[in-house]
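Query structure, 299 tokens:
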């Protein structure tokens, strides 16, 4: 296994033609963006996710490509639109000429996520326009390594994982994280879709999960099953909170996550909302009112 560092960043070769550029130490450290994966050989590669549009990750990616012999970058694949994954895509496209590809549901969201509003110091910057789309089941190849597109909505509507059949590696983006469970925030996030996507992963002959944040997961099927069990447990806790009289996400969060850091409370409230929406669609809870006045109760 080869390794190189620049300066706190590191890269590992996980399998022949599969290079993992570790940029996000944990699910909560997104200062430079998400991990990046380069698939291919010294002649051609595909880059999956690009981290933020910052000099550090961009320089690390460029330096690693140079170390591979500056292969042709034939495509830039995005797992989804969030800026810590898509932010550097336009810069990498400008440097390599490679097209940016994502699921069609993510294309308008990429433009929205990467746009920069005008300030007193700088004019507005339009968001990134992707060059094409990818679909579930599609197979792309770089340097003889096949990459299968797996549409896995939940964290985002067009979120995609990428399965590498030769090595059994599953690149999970934000569907499965290395040391946390992913966030699900309406309207783009759906707890129902997330659970279906997690269950779908169990059908693949995975040897390891390569997440976009946090460490490598060597026991992929057990990990996914544990995440599904955790989601079911949280759902029961939400239902218990409703039965106890809590009728809004903030109150439910206070009961279900009593020791949560203040900076994470809003994120947890959106997560609870996604669970309530799922339970309502299943007929297990009902809601009355709109917006901040909406109240929830068991059906």
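Result returned for the query:
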């Amino acid at each position: 296994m080869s390794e190189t560092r620049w300066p706190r960043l590191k890269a590992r070769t996980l399998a022949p033609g599969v290079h993992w550029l570790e940029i996000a130490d944990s699910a909560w450290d997104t200062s430079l963006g998400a991990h990046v994966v380069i698939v291919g050989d010294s002649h051609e590669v595909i880059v999956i996710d690009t981290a933020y549009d910052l000099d550090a990750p961009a320089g690390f990616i460029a330096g690693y490509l140079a170390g591979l012999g500056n292969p042709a970058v034939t495509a830039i694949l995005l797992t989804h639109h969030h800026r810590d994954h898509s932010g550097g895509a336009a810069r990498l496209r400008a440097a390599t000429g490679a097209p940016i590809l994502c699921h069609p549901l993510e294309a308008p969201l990429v433009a929205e996520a990467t746009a920069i509003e005008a300030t007193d110091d700088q004019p507005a910057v339009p968001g990134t326009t992707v060059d094409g789309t990818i679909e579930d089941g599609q197979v792309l190849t770089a340097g003889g390594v096949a990459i299968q597109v797996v549409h896995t909505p939940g964290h985002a509507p067009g979120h995609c994982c990428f399965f590498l059949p030769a090595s059994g590696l599953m690149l999970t983006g934000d569907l499965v994280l290395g040391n946390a469970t992913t966030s699900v925030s309406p309207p783009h996030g759906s707890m129902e879709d997330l659970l279906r996507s997690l269950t779908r992963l169990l059908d693949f002959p995975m040897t390891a999960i390569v997440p976009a944040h946090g460490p490598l997961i060597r026991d992929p099927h057990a990990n996914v099953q544990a995440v599904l069990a955790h989601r079911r447990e949280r759902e029961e806790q939400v239902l218990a909170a409703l039965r106890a009289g809590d009728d809004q996400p903030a109150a439910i969060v206070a009961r279900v996550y009593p020791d949560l850091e203040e900076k994470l409370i809003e994120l947890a409230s959106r997560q609870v909302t996604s669970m309530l929406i799922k339970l309502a669609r299943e007929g297990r809870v009902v809601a009355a009112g709109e917006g901040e006045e909406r109240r929830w109760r068991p059906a």
